[in-house]
Write a structure and sequence with these properties.
Elements lengths: L1 H17 L2 H5 L2 E8 L5 E3 L1 H12 L7 E13 L2 E11 L16 E12 L2 E11 L4
Parallel strand pairs: 1-6
Antiparallel strand pairs: 1-2, 3-4, 4-5, 5-6
């Protein structure tokens, strides 16, 4: 189970680094919830993909994402909570309210909730917050 979940996160990182919004959203459930780093809450895989397509074509064009899995917890056999430390480099600019750390990189804490379905593991919730200085 853990390996399957790890592969999803790896695919997400690779898709981000290609600027591939469809690939980034590929493992998301149709009715997922998504909270971005500035606190905007959105719903649905299609909206998630569209949002990332916009980012990949604008402020995050050419950026590089590293996703470091800190913990995978299975509170039930068909549920995975994945805590990820993310680092973003090479961005054009950051959204208002988000600031880089002293190293010039954007650091975020991402929690993904995955549910195992008949077709495999699917991301049902994606909650990302930026790490504040201090």
């Amino acid at each position: 189970m853990q390996n399957e979940v790890t592969q999803i996160i790896r695919r997400q990182q690779e898709a981000w680094n290609r600027g591939d919004a469809a690939g980034y959203a590929a493992d998301c459930e149709e009715q997922m919830s998504f909270t971005n780093i500035v606190g905007k809450m959105l719903f649905g895989r299609e909206v998630f993909e569209e949002h990332h397509a916009f980012l990949f074509g604008s402020i995050f064009k050419g950026s590089r994402l590293e996703m470091d899995i800190r913990r995978i917890h299975f509170p039930a056999p068909n549920i995975a909570l994945v805590d990820i430390a993310c680092t973003l480099a090479g961005y054009q600019r950051l959204p208002e309210g988000a600031a880089p750390q002293n190293d010039g990189l954007l650091h975020t804490c991402l929690l993904e909730v995955l549910v195992r379905t008949e077709s495999g593991w699917r991301v049902v919730a994606y909650h990302n917050v930026d790490v504040k200085k201090g």
